[in-house]
Amino acid sequence: MNRTTDTIIAPRRLRLGPDDKPVIFAAGFVLLILLVGTGYTVYTQGNAPLLQPQYLLQQLQVGSFLGIVSAGLMVVILLGHIDLSVPWTLTAAAMMATAVGGPWAIPAGIGVGLLVGIVNGLGVAYLRVPSMIFTLGMNAVMRGLMVAHTGGFAPATAATDLMQYLAVSRIGGVIPVALLVWLAVSIVAVAILTRTTLGRAIYAIGNRERAAYLSGIDTNRVILIAFALSGAAAGLAGVLLAGYSTKAYQGMGDAYLLPAIAAVVIGGTNILGGRGRYLGTLVGVILIVLLNSVLSIMQMPEAGRQIIYGCVIISMLLVYGRGGRVTG
Amino acid sequence: MPAPASFFALENISKRYGGVHALRDVDFACNRGSIHAVLGENGAGKSTLMKIMTGVVQPDEGRMTLEGAPVTFPNPAAANRAGIVCIFQELSLMPELTVADNITLSRPPRRFGFIDGRAQRLRSEELLARIGCEDINPLSRVSDLPLSRRQMVEIAKALGRDPKLLILDEATSALTSADVDRVYRMLFELKARDLSILYISHRMHEIEALADRCSVFRNGRHIETFAKGSRSNDEIVGLMIGREIEGQFPPKLRRTRPAPLITIRDLSWEDRLNGVGLEAGRGEIVGLGGLDGQGQKELLLALFGVLRGVRGTVTLEGEPTAATSPKAAKSGQARMALVPEDRKSEGLILSMSIADNISMASLDRLSHGMFIDAGRTRRAVERAIEQLRIKTGNSGDPVSTLSGGNQQKVVIAKWLATNPDIILLNDPTRGIDVGTKQEIYRLMRELAEQGACILFYSTDYEELIGCCDRVAVMYDGRVVRELEGEAITERNLIASALNIVEQREPAHV
Q1: Which letter does DSSP use for residue B399 in this model?
Q2: Strand pairing partners for B372?
Q3: Are residues B309 and B438 in the same domain?
C-alpha cells in the first residue's frame, strides 16, 4: 500500500520525466541489439549487413504491420482494457478484402475490423463485460466465421494490386510504401492522443474512470470509439499483410497479438492504463522486430528464440514497468 | 510545564521535494501519556512530518530518537514494529475484503499455518468493541459500509497493532458526532495507559476538547509548541496563517427570496430518498443539513444524473428535466456542476497534471471540433489558477503534488470553467485548512452574487450557519424542515436533524 504513497509525492522535474525513461531505455536496447548482431556477423562472416540501410528499411517494412496493430492496441491499453481479438480480426479483414476484391477490397477489410471493434466496444462499454473475456470471445467467433467461410482452407482469392502495392512496393525503389502507411497511422495516433478531447478522455478514463465520468465525459462513447479504432487498425494491418503475401490464409494474425502487447508495454505504456506515449510504442515495435531478426540471423533455434524473446520482455518490464501507478 | 523525557524526538529534520522545502530544520518531540495536537494550514508540513515519523518517506537531514535511542525507519513496517502507528487521512482499507480481514491484515492470527477465521473474528469484535462499534459486523464487506463506519474500522485496525505512539491524521473528518465521542473516549483511555498520541485536525473545538499540548506548523517550520489554554483560539489561528484573520464568513445579503431556478418535487431513489421537495433560486446558497447519511449525498448525485432509477420531477427554469448523466447535467438548460465527496477518487485524476484536471470538464468549450485549442486552454488554466489562488509551481505538475486545500481548489476551478448555473457542493471543506476554507466561503458568496444557485451539503453546523441563506434539514431521505435567516441556529439545526419539532420558528416547514 505504501509504495503508492511514495510515488504520489515523488519529485518530478520534467513534465514527461517518468514517461521518457522507458522510451530512452528501449531505444538504448535497440542499439544494443544492433551492436550484438553486428558483432556476431563481423565475427562469423566478416561483414556487417545489419547496419546497411537496405536491411534496416526491410525490417521497418516488415515492422509496419506490427506497428499498425500496436497503434490501435495502445489506445485500448491506455483505457486500462485489452483487445485480444486482434489475431482473427486481422485474419477476417484480410480474407474479406481478398474475397471482395476490386476497388472495394481495402474498405471492406478495414470495415470488417471496424465492425468487430464496434461490437467489442459495445460489449465492454455498455454491457460492461470485462474486455479480456469479451474480446477473447469475439476472437473465437471471428475464427469460427472464417472457418465456415473458407471451409477451413486457405481461400483461393488473391490480394488486389493496390493491396500489394501498399504492402510490397517501394517508392523510387527505396522507401517502402508500407512504412509510409505506418507513418500516416502514427501521425493520426499522435494527433488523437495529444491534441483531441478524445485523447484526453482516454487518458482520464485509464487513470480513473469514475472521476472522468463525474467530470461529464461520456465514458461509454470513448470506450466504444477506442475499441473501434483498435479494430480498424487490425483490419488495416490484415489488408496490408494479405497484400504482402498476395493472399489471405488461416492463422495469419496469430503472430501479432503477443508482440503487439509487448511492443506497447515495452514502450512504457502502463498495462493498467492511463499512462504512456506513442513514441514509446514506436520504439517498442522496432525493438521487437529487430530482436526477432537478429536472433534469426544468429541462427538461434526456434526454442531458444522464444526463450530469449520472453526473457527480454520480462526483464525490460522489471527495469521500468513496475509500480509507479498512482492509485490514490 | 515540567517536561518529562521525550518518548519520540526529531531533531533538525529537513525534507525537500524538488525545489520545495516541505520541512525545514524541524525539532519536534512528543511524550508518553499525552495527546499532542499538530496544527497548521494544508501544505504547512504536517503530513510530511507524519510520513517521516512512520517511515513512509525518509528525511534528507536530521535524526530521530525513540526513547533516547537513535532510530531510522526505512519503511512503514519498521515504524510499525517500533510501535508507531498512523491512521492516515485517506482510507487504507481493502473494500472487497471483510472488516475482520482488514483489521488483522498485517498480522492475521494463524493456526497450523492457516489463517484462523474464528480467532480473526473474535479479535476484530474485541477491537471494535473497544471503540464502541459493536454494531459493525466483522464479516461484512468494507465496501458495504458507509464512509463513517469505514473510518471506525480504520481506527480499530490501527489499535490492533498495539501502538505506543498513535498518530491520527484528520481521522475524525468523516465521522458522525456519536462516533467522534467514542473516539474521544478511546483516546482518553489510551492516554491513561501511557500512550503517546499525535492528533492532527483542523477542527478547533476538537483540539480544545482533547489536546494537552499543541504545536503549530507553518511553511514547513515548527513555529511554536505550547500547553493547551495558554493561547486563545484567535492567537492560534494567527500563528497558523501568520496573519490576523478577519470575519470567518462573508456577510450575507438581506433580500427577498428569488424566483426558483430549480424546483425539486417528490424525488425518490431506492430507500435513500423518500420524496424530497426543495426549491432554490439564483443568488441563493441553500444548505443541506441533518445527520450524516440522511440522503443529502444521494440528492446531489440524483440531481447530477449519476443515479439510475430516480423518480420524481426536477424542473429547471420551469422546464422539466431529468439529467441522465453528468454530461447531460453539465450541458443542459441550466448547467450544473458537482464538487463530489471524495476529491482524490471522484473529483480529481491525481496522476494527471493540474492543467489537465482544470480543463477536464470544459474541454468542449476549449476545442474546435475534436481538437483542443492549446492556447485557449492554457489561458483558461492560468485564469483559474489566478482566480482561485491555487499555490502551484507549474501547472504541468501532477495534481497529486498539491496540498489537500489546493487540490480542492482545482476541483472547484474545474467546474467554474464550465460557467455553471447550479453548483452542487458535497462537503467541499472536508479536511481543509482554515485559510482555504475561508477562501471557499468567500468564493461561494461571490458566485451566488453573480447569479449562481448553490446547494451546499456540509457536516459542519458552523458552516451552514455562516454560509447559507436557507438550510433544508434532511431526515430519512426527506426534507423535514427549512430554516431561513435568523432561524438558522445550531439549536434549530440539531433539533430538526433529530426530527424533533419543538417550537415553531418563523420559517418554512
Answers
A1: G
A2: B367
A3: yes
Chain A closest-CA separation from residue B425 CA (Å):
13
Residue B10 clears pLDDT 80, i.e. is over it: yes
pLDDT bucket at B300, cuts 50 / 70 / 90: very high
B412: domain range?
Answer: 350-416
pLDDT value of residue B16: 82
Mean pLDDT over residues B191-219, rounded? 84
The count of CB pairs under 8 A between chains A and B is: 107
Would B323 be classed as within a structural domain? Answer: yes
Give the span between the Cα atoms of B455 and B188, in whole angstroms. Answer: 38
**C-alpha span between B496 and B474 (Å, rounded):** 8
Quick check: is B110 in a domain?
yes
**ipTM summary value:** 0.85
Residue A227 pLDDT:
98
Grid cell locating B47: 503530513
pLDDT at A320: 63
B488 vs B509: CA distance, rounded Å:
13
The count of domains in chain B is: 3
Q: Please say if the pLDDT value at position A241 is more than 70.
A: yes
Together in a domain, B388 and B481 = no
| Whether A212 contacts chain B with CB within 8 A | yes
Distance CA(A116)–CA(A92), nearest Å, equals: 10
- CATH code: domain of residue B144: 3.40.50.300
Q: CA B36, CA B214: separation in Å to the nearest integer?
A: 6
Q: Beta strands of B144-299 (E only): which ranges?
A: 165-169, 196-200, 213-218, 221-227, 260-269, 273-281, 285-289
* B449 and B432, same domain (yes or no): yes
Q: Which of B363, B367, B381 to mutate to test the interface with A (most CBs of A within 10 A)?
A: B363
